[in-house]
Recover the amino acids of this structure.
């Protein structure tokens, strides 16, 4: 039984400074929303407020139409899995998973039988009798997930649950989460500082910057249609061309570049993801310039080019890469062009 | 933990354990040898169990045994209840935890003799409590038939010890687990029963065992605040030892051997209990 989760104007101050300054966010029933933000922006604080482990200075938390603000954590139906698994060391793996069932008044045998089912769901049926101390990090986190699911929460809260795991294990956990959605479709609010993880797991990604949700959108849209320069920069976008919008085109030192969708006239910064920019010969392209630097990024290369509008970057796949000093042309595909307001202040 | 962990811990303990074992072993050996006639103060060795057989039929020893065990059990139970309760209460607030830790840390090093004198001043029938209450007939707490003052002194001091040990055991992440249990639907009582108490249990068992053995073997408080008869075992042993009749010395040593054996048995039971709590995965009830 999943319900929606609505955060309405959450404010939390620590010693005068507002860490959260009016957070509005909705997670639809059965949906997965990733809360993405730099370290220390208050992502964990949001989850603690939802779980009832902390009290907001203002704002409300609602789930399925029920106002949770002020309720004790045990009466909210919001199970929380954190970065560390926090298994009960004095209980076996099976009894850890059976804990929420026993607490809810289930008989021991029934609780264990049901817990075994949840343990099976995360692929750890064989480890039922083990002590938590004998598990690997990935196994512990799976048990923590199974235990949270056993509580049949209205909302499942995940606070960077996979960030301490090896990359391979982490991908396994992402697949597990996808499988779990198919099996029990919980409502999930997932906190992460990892863009890839947010994109891999969530339907909607909400970016938390300076105590507010700067933008909430599907991951793809977030990258190509950022709401502000701050969001673009936080998501790793490096190409910014200052200029102005005039009658459906962006005018700058690069000249007049047609825009794919209507933008209001006035000053604006053109942003194009570096992954979308293509290299051509110096005679073609929307901009031309000289390569200043080429840096490897895994299987790809980041090529930095000085242009009349300042430095622009392109990421190229494996293959022929230009060398510093080469003259090149840059193609900014029309459907990838996007204008954001100039940074204020 | 790596395989050599426990062995290394034992090695680190050696400097503390060796002198203790040496002193205790030597004293105990002499006591056993003398009380069995194998090492008489004068004359030839003559192995005998006469001293122990005589003691076994002696009212003084049996009454002393009863009183010693009773006082130790009552003191331990009270110290556990108070110390455990304080530690569990204190952990609910940060300030409470700090205050309790300070209070307990200040109490533990106070010598029992000083504590006993203070309790005496407080609870004697002409003491502060009696005067403050202005009662006509104040109950005989000091040197009374129920050993109230003795038990009170031990319970007070040892509850501080229990509280410190339990707080230290709970410090390791119990707060986080308490939060986790809450988000899984456990209310305050469920969290106490299913998380805090099981996590505190090993520390409490250990502290209780040590307290029981200590009270069983300690002399000063019972001597200062207790009755003249029956005497707890250490008081009995001391009186026999200082008797003008030298033959009594063997009996004194025999009483000391019996007391030590009881204390050791208590520690063994504690160790067995601890091994059990460590092994069994506690079932969901
Ligand atoms: N209990 C607290 N008391 C004081 N400051 C806190 C407390 N909890 C969090 N903070 C502060 O709030 C900010 C946000 O913390 P947190 O929510 O943990 O960030 P994130 O999870 O995004 O890294 C941090 O600057 C942190 O120091
Ligand atoms: Mg955090």
């Amino acid at each position: 039984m999943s319900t929606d989760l609505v955060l309405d104007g959450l404010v939390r101050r620590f010693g005068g400074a507002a860490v959260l300054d009016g957070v509005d966010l909705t997670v639809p029933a059965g949906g997965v929303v990733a809360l993405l933000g730099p370290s220390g922006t208050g992502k964990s604080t949001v989850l603690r407020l939802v779980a009832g482990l902390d009290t907001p200075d203002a704002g409300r938390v609602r789930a399925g139409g029920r106002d949770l603000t002020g309720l004790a954590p045990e009466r909210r139906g919001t199970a929380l899995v954190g970065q560390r698994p926090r298994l009960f060391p004095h209980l076996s793996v099976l009894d850890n998973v059976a804990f929420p069932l026993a607490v809810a008044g289930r008989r021991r045998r029934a609780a264990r039988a049901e817990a075994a089912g949840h343990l099976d769901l995360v692929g750890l049926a064989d480890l039922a009798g083990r002590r938590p101390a004998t598990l690997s990090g990935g196994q512990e986190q799976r048990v923590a997930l199974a235990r949270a699911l056993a509580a049949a929460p209205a909302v499942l809260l995940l606070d960077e649950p996979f960030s301490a795991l090896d990359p391979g294990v982490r991908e396994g956990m992402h697949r597990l989460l996808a499988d779990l959605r198919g099996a029990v479709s919980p409502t999930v609010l997932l906190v992460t500082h990892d863009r890839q993880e947010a994109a891999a797991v969530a339907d909607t990604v909400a970016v938390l910057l300076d105590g507010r949700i700067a933008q909430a959108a599907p991951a793809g849209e977030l990258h190509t249609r950022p709401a502000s320069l701050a969001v673009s920069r936080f998501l790793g976008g490096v190409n910014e061309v200052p200029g102005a919008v005039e009658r459906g085109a962006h005018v700058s030192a690069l000249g007049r570049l047609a825009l794919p969708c209507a933008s209001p006239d006035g000053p604006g910064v053109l942003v194009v993801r570096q992954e979308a920019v293509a290299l051509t010969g110096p005679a073609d392209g929307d901009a031309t310039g000289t390569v200043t630097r080429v840096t490897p990024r895994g299987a790809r290369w980041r090529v930095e080019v000085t242009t009349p509008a300042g430095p622009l970057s392109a990421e190229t796949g494996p293959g022929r890469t230009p060398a510093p000093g080469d003259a090149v042309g840059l193609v900014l595909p029309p459907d990838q062009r996007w204008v954001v307001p100039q940074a204020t202040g | 933990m790596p395989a050599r962990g426990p062995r290394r811990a034992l090695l680190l303990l050696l400097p503390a354990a060796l002198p203790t074992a040496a002193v205790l072993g030597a004293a105990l050996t002499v006591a056993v040898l003398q009380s069995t006639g194998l090492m008489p103060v004068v004359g030839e060795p003559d192995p005998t169990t006469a001293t122990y057989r005589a003691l076994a039929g002696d009212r003084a020893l049996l009454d002393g045994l009863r009183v010693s065990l009773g006082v130790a059990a009552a003191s331990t139970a009270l110290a556990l209840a108070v110390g455990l309760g304080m530690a569990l209460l204190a952990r609910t607030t940060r300030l409470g935890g700090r205050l309790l830790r300070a209070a307990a840390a200040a109490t533990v090093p106070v010598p029992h003799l000083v504590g006993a004198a203070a309790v005496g001043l407080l609870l004697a029938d002409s003491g502060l409590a009696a005067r403050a209450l202005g009662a006509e007939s104040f109950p005989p707490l000091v040197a009374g038939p129920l050993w109230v003052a003795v038990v009170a002194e031990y319970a007070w001091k040892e509850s501080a010890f229990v509280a410190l040990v339990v707080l230290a055991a709970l410090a390791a992440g119990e707060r986080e687990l308490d939060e986790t249990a809450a988000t899984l639907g456990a209310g305050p009582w469920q969290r106490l029963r299913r998380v805090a108490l099981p996590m505190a249990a090993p520390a409490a068992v250990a502290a209780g065992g040590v307290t029981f053995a200590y009270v069983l073997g300690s002399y000063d408080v019972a001597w200062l605040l207790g009755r003249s008869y029956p005497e707890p075992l250490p008081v009995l042993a001391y009186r026999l030892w200082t008797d003008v009749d030298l033959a009594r010395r063997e009996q004194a040593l025999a009483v000391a051997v019996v007391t030590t054996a009881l204390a050791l048995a208590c520690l063994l039971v504690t160790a067995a209990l601890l091994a059990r709590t460590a092994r069994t995965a506690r079932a969901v009830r």
Q: What stands out?
A: Residues A 14, 19, 37, 39-45 surround adenosine-5'-diphosphate (ligand 1) (CB under 6 Å). Chain A has two domains: 5-224, 238-341. The CA atoms of residues 20 and 156 of chain A lie 21 Å apart. The longest strand of chain A covers residues 17-27.
